[in-house]
């Protein structure tokens, strides 16, 4: 549960303004749920060799793009109509930034789906699927927790997401080394292993975007920008 001191977004005199902010947050979380599902279904399509599901994921990217445009428009209208200040302005600005991260997560899901189609057409599964499952589980957990931190204005949970990013980077590098060794042992595997490498890279980027969302949650709640700062500094901000 977030600390009471983190619960900085209360009611406003204008009931309509309350509704607009609530709707903005709801739409953002809906978009988050969609891209989370897109990544999960793309990975499942890859592992199952299900080209049809992968095609569905690729087609679903248009819906993600539309949600991004709609949310950007709504946020812009709120700024124009309400001229929010302080905490409310931080909320709207953070949503605009986080929407961009969600759209890029959708793009990564589309890339994974594209590789799933390619690999399903080639037949036999290459090495690296165990690593894909493992990293996918990790980054999807990060994304879910980052969205939950936003929903509950929980800066401590957001900080935990930030701390996981280093672990994902390490897992990605270890998986890449394993695949590189496999390719060196048998050059016939190079093409398929490179496709798996692209999937692993896409998943690592999903973790990066989850981390970005977490950083913006801390900005919303604490009013301090913790991007491009060591986790130790972010920890001090959250602890204040």
Descriptive report:
With 240 residues, this protein is an all-alpha fold. The chain has one domain (12-239): Phosphate transport system protein phou homolog 2, domain 2 (Methane Monooxygenase Hydroxylase, Chain G, domain 1, Up-down Bundle). 83% of the residues lie in helices and 0% in strands. The protein has helices at 15-48, 51-82, 86-122, 129-152, 155-185, 190-222, 231-239.
CATH class: Mainly Alpha
> Which range best describes the helical content: under 10%, 10-25%, 25-40%, 40-55%, 55-70% or over 70%?
over 70%
CATH fold naming: Methane Monooxygenase Hydroxylase, Chain G, domain 1
* Structural domain count: 1
Structural class: mainly alpha
Distance between the ends: 17 Å
Order of helices and strands: HHHHHHH
Mean pLDDT: 91
Low-confidence stretches: 4-8
CATH architecture: Up-down Bundle
The largest sheet is:
none
Keywords:
240 residues, mainly alpha, Methane Monooxygenase Hydroxylase, Chain G, domain 1, 7 helices, PhoU, PhoU-like_sf, PhoU_dom, phosphate transport
Layout of secondary structure:
Layout: H1 15-48, H2 51-82, H3 86-122, H4 129-152, H5 155-185, H6 190-222, H7 231-239
Helix pairs in contact: 1-2, 1-3, 1-4, 2-3, 3-6, 4-5, 4-6, 5-6, 5-7
């Amino acid at each position: 549960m977030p600390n009471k001191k983190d619960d900085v977004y209360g009611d406003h005199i204008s009931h309509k303004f309350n509704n607009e902010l609530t709707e903005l947050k709801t739409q953002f979380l809906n978009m988050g749920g969609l891209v989370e599902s897109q990544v999960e279904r793309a990975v499942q399509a890859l592992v199952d060799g299900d080209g049809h599901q992968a095609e569905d994921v690729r087609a679903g990217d248009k819906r993600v793009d539309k949600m991004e445009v709609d949310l950007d428009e709504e946020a812009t209208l709120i700024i124009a109509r309400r001229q929010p200040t302080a905490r409310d302005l931080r909320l709207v600005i953070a949503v605009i930034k986080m929407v961009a991260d969600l759209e890029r997560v959708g793009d990564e899901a589309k890339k994974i789906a594209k590789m799933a189609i390619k690999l399903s057409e080639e037949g036999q599964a290459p090495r690296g699927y165990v690593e894909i499952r493992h990293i996918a589980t990790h980054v999807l957990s990060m994304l879910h927790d980052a969205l939950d931190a936003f929903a509950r204005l929980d800066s401590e949970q957001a900080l935990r997401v930030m701390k996981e990013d280093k672990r994902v980077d390490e897992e990605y590098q270890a998986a890449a080394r394993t695949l590189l060794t496999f390719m060196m042992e048998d050059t016939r595997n190079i093409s398929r292993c490179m496709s798996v490498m692209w999937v692993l890279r896409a998943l690592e980027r999903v973790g990066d975007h989850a981390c970005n969302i977490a950083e913006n949650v801390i900005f919303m709640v604490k009013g301090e920008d913790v991007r491009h700062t060591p986790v130790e500094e972010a920890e001090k901000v959250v602890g204040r």
